[in-house]
Target: Phosphoribosylglycinamide formyltransferase
Amino acid sequence: MLSLVVLISGGGSNLRALLEASEDAEFPARVVAIGADRDADGLALGEEFNVPTFTVPYSSHADRESWGDELLAQIQQWQPDLVVLSGLMRLLPPRVVAALSPNLINTHPAYLPEFPGAHGVRDALAAGVSQTGASLIVVDNGVDDGPIIAQERVPVLPGDTESTLHERIKTLERRLLVQAVLDIANGHVNLKEPSHT
Model:
């Protein structure tokens, strides 16, 4: 059974998809803890699904490194097989990445390497492209440039707003994430050598 710690900053829609999938006794992974860098709405899912939560507020630390050290200590208490960044809106310090990699994955609302960074959906709309996508990557010390585990295209429709496009991408992100966790748990994906799709 693959054990997961999921880190969030917001509502946790990808987290909910994982929690719902893991309610199936046949699903070979379980979320053992949920962490956040702020008082995120998604922490309420911990109570709903009976999963422990922890918060390491970025604002209560002097710098990114000390915040990262505390976050890493909290994560390591759970000894997870895999750490999932699910909407965590902070770059992890190199020490944290080094300690967890390659068992550290992240979803991104674009078809990488297109539109990396915090505003992938907005950037795609601003560029006027006809399609964007969703990607799942192994986290490294770059900005959304780690090895790609899975990705899929999403069309940009006439009249799309950042909100409508992001909702369609989120639906795809949830499916990619649940499938990737399943594939990792079943040994079909090796995070040390992920194949580009």
About this structure: The chain has six helices and seven strands. The longest strand covers residues 29-36.
